[in-house]
Specification:
Blueprint (H helix, E strand, L loop, with lengths): L3 E9 L5 H11 L3 E13 L2 E7 L2 H12 L6 E4 L5 H13 L5 E3 L17 H8 L5 E2 L3 H8 L7 H13 L5 E3 L8 E8 L2 E8 L9 H14 L4 H17 L21
Parallel strand pairs: 1-2, 1-4, 4-5, 5-6
Antiparallel strand pairs: 2-3, 7-8, 8-9
Helix pairs in contact: 1-7, 2-3, 3-4, 5-6, 7-8
Length: 265
Amino acid sequence: MTAIAVTIAGSDSGGGAGIQADLKTFSALGVYGASVIAALTAQNTKGVTGIHDVPPAFVTQQIDAVFSDLKVDAVKIGMLSNAGVIAAVVDGLARHHVNNIVLDPVMVATSGDRLLDPAAMDALRNTLIPRARIITPNLPEAAALLDAPVAANEADMQAQAGRLIAGGAQAVLMKGGHGSGPEAVDLLVAPGSVTRFAAPRIDTRNTHGTGCTLSSAIAAGLAKNLPLPDAVRAAKVYVTAAIAASNRISIGSGHGPVHHFHAWW
């Protein structure tokens, strides 16, 4: 059977993040990708200049079209800009009995532009996070979800992941890309276990779409029936290589994208 993953997220007109990054990642990792577009952004490597929300009813139509026909093995959820869209996604996932959900709680773009309506935060916390098999916040996102300071070290990261699990998350990958030091350390925290994933920190400005790419790579692994820790490990290897190869391509004049097809180009 062909492994199939679906991304439910926002479109990035510049091609480096969002739906576009997710579909590139699925393809690079040998998984067929389908999509539900939850928002459109006018965006490039320098920033976001506009957001157009997709009406929740049309998000529902897309979900029903995809899940009524395709045998979906995993779902990645990214940018959902408001509470109405979040409600449509939650209802659609329940209606189609969707499992293997990877939630990247996107709030702010690499450029610093806000992508989530602050009023939608409670909907994200209370209705969507508990449905996900894993959530993948970076350090600022975890802090925002908890109304807490940004984690300063691995002990803080583990403690914040524990609080997110106590609040309803099934498993948390705390991403350390915003941290400091020679290693970029991610912690996979689940009830009763902590797994550390470390890679050399790469000095590059081409970091656009790294979070989208990592979460969709995890979804690709789950779509291929990898156990969760193995899916995270494979995704970490893939995104690290994509960042390391990013200087081989020249895209835009701001924060360029990672090189999704580094193994072929």
